[in-house]
Amino acid sequence: MSSIARLAAAATAAGVVSAALVLPAMGSSGAVVVAATEALNFRPEELEEPPLAEKTTVYDAEGNKIAQFYAQDRKVVPLERIADVMKTAIVAIEDDRFYEHGAIDIEGTARALVKNLASGGIGQGGSSITQQYVKQVLLNSASTEKEKNAALEASYARKLKELRHAMAVEQKYTKDAILEKYLNIAYFGAGANGVEAAARRFFGVPAARLDLAQAATLAGAVQAPNRTDPNLGAKARALLLQRRNVVLDRMAELGRITRAQADAAKARKLGYKGVKQPNGCQESRYPYFCEYVRHELLSDPAFGRTQRQRELAFSQGGLKVHTTLDPKAQKAAEAAIKKHVFASDRALAAEALVEPGTGAIKAMAASRPFGGSARRNEISYNAAADKKHGGLIGFQAGSTYKTFTLITALKQGMKIDDGITAGAGYTAPGYTTFKNCAGENVGDPSWTVTNDEGAPGFKTLATGTWGSVNTFFMALQERVGLCPTVETAKSLGIKRADGAQLREFETFTLGINESDPVTVATAYAAIAARGTYCPPTAITGITGPDGRTADYRPRCKQVLDPQIADATAHILSGVFTRGTMRGVGGIGRPAAGKTGTTDGYATAWFAGFTPDLAGAVSIGDPRGSQRYKLTGVTIGGRYYGAVQGASLPGPIWNDTMTSALRGVAPTRFTPIDTARFGGCGQDCAPARRDPEDPVTNPPLGETVQKPHEDPPGQ
Fold first, then answer.
1. Known PANTHER family for this protein (predicted)?
2. What is the pTM of this model?
3. Closest to 629 (Cα-Cα) out of 606, 605, 647, 603
4. Rounded to whole angstroms, how far apart are CA atoms 459 and 469?
5. Are the beta carbons of 395 and 386 closer than 8 angstroms?
6. What tens digit of pLDDT does each residue of 222-263 get?
7. Which strands sit side by side in the sheet containing 539-543, from one edge to the other?
8. Which of 67, 92, 363, 369 could form a disulfide bond with 353, CB atoms 3.0-4.6 angstroms apart?
9. Residue 591: its pLDDT value, please?
């Protein structure tokens, strides 16, 4: 070879031609002069290598995968977890002298130059695996269309840039390390990035178990993955099969396999399986809990100052998210809802279970499937959570809010047997009777709250709660104050599901605020934990791609005197034995709770707890609970004249708790301080009873069947 020819080969190895470089043209005695656009520069240039985009995986409390998220389907694996035949195949077809040359294959690029000059452009790249890795890094790092186009443009300037980076890469890593990086970054088609994702997507096996035919298929795919994508149809699959056979022939030609092995592999069908790789909450087994986790991460500044940064960290960061989800509790909640409410029903039931003392969300379930199909009666929001965590506006929580007035009364020194004479109706004495926390008058003497059923008379804190008497709680709230009642609710984490400020009106105690099951369950869990409030949490720890784990610990605080929480639990226990849940019964272990039914039977609730687990169930019509009330409806194949807290949410709660706590030794509530709160205990009659009240004083020999809870007015 002449000195000029050798110079030309060296120059084209860099992907550029220097100014006035003369190369003899094939078949011509003349010369072709190629003008250069950039002077030669062979100094290595450091390549910035940001972490590869990987899948984020979410796990339940037992370590089972429940969801995954990705912008690029990829799982980075070390070279030793990639089948040797895969390494052999990719080197044979892409760069057979990879282990023999440096940053560039002089011979290969020289051959490519001849064809490029003859065609007047860049038709053949001649790029080494190292150069291809560099190109993929630049492409993956591009954040704008301009940057992406620059990484792909057919120019000698781009080739020179790649070469300088390739030289630096070759100096920095071993050949095996470069091959590992290339196999993890390469795109193979069908949405699979990296050889591990490709092996699983194409053939349903890990990269370590690829056989000869499969490895040759993937090696053939990297040249033009968008043309040979098997998901595109028969033509693309035929091209992929053709490419596979080219790879097999090349491997045999190089002596990497025998001709017999190549022929046997070529005789096989393509074998593409197209294994589906779930992406997002809609494809999770537990979509509502998944949505809660997703929104929790996307709102956490620890994962980025901006929403965009957090979205990238979540979809590309390769995180392992460990959560509080208890498969046993989740199964119990799903089964209980399914038993009582059909997925095809207009009414929507939702439930959340929360662990007292930690705030850990153990389960989230709803009666309808998650998704966007109206035909399948799906919903695309989190029915069990607030708007911040993927929910909407929630449902009015009804008489479950009476518990906050009860607690406020106990905080102010009232005893269990203290009470008020409640009338058949309650009207605020004046506009100044109720003041919100801003000091504004919110009393409404022009409107009267009534009881749908039940006789008026003297009601104690216990009997008024057991019978859920509206007029009693209005009078009680008048005594203890609206703002102190609101402050009690807030201390237990109560807030509106839509994120707006709580509506502080005189009917606050009757549950006029829209709430979500997670929030209500967490508030009741604080009572079970003897006044310790722990914000609801779904995440216990997050492991990054570097293997380091950040643990999330409960941020709990004491918000109630433990003895006041004990007295509240004591009274609420009577709801099962003497109150609105008496006809439904208990769960065979100490439990406490409160039914909730809103004005006109728009929605129905039950919130309750044991010392080990708390839960809240809501039901309403998502088309508009005030317009589509729960009267004259068929739910779960059963007709209801009117749905109350004890008729549907209560049984769902009971069934859930019975299953979720099966095998868990019962824990008793802490006995009350009778010297402070009075009361003679759960198993004896209250000190003062209303002889006209069939709930607290049933006729001798009679049993109250499914007692009716008075729906609150608004």
1. BINDING PROTEIN TRANSPEPTIDASE, PUTATIVE-RELATED, PEPTIDOGLYCAN GLYCOSYLTRANSFERASE
2. 0.82
3. 603
4. 8
5. no
6. 999 999 999 999 999 999 999 999 999 999 999 999 999 999
7. 65-69, 56-59, 320-323, 539-543, 549-551
8. 363
9. 97
